[in-house]
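Feature request, filed as a ticket because there's no other form

It would be nice if the structure record came with a short human-readable summary line next to the tokens. Right now we just get the raw output. Example of a typical job, pasted below so the devs can see what we mean:
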Amino acid sequence: MNYCTDYITHYKLDAEHFDYFDNPDPAGRAYDNLFRKFILKLAGKPKSVLDIGSGGGWTSTIPHEQILFVDLSLNNLAKLKSDFSAPVMADAHFLPFKNESQEFVIVSEILEHLNSPQAAAKEILRVLKPGGKAIVSTPYKENIRYTLCIHCNQPTPMNAHLHSFDRETLLSFFPSAKTSVYLFGSKVLTVIRAASLFEKLPLWVWRMVNYPLLKLVDKAQHIIIVLEK
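Raw output as currently delivered:
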């Protein structure tokens, strides 16, 4: 199993050097927009939002009255503060919130980076209110690639992705929750760079094409789990 020896320092520095929310590839940006539209559809209109691993804070587009941004980087959090939000510097493994205190939790593209996704999953369930909802998304069945670190000469996973998830593995982290599972982003559409063609169309058009392709070939970009406690 991959493991980051000092992930707190890593993600503080990472935010200072890289902006993963500034995708220079037009097809990549179009796909990101479609993916986020789908997350927004699943999220609904919660009064309060807890965004774990907020990064650039795109989740602020979810309709809300209050949003808590949780990140390890002060650099990220300093850019996100507004009248309707609060930045919280914290670790997803140890959330500084009371039991059953959060109405809606989103953890998007974070678990694959964590030393212990299981610990973070327990924290998500711990802070979620009865009747509350959480959305968790990760890459799906990712073939993690490695490079040789120029500093330590050890194999290093690309994009700091430590884990790869399929349906069974991800669901096993949330045994006590009611769950719905969605696959998003057929890799067939990714290869032909089709997202740009669908970006301005209603989301159902993309889903109408995406769904049968995933039934035919089980290769998706992302898996999304919606939890209800």
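Something like this underneath would help us a lot:
The beta strands are 48-52, 66-71, 85-89, 102-108, 128-139, 146-148, 155-157, 178-186, 220-228.
The mean pLDDT is 92.
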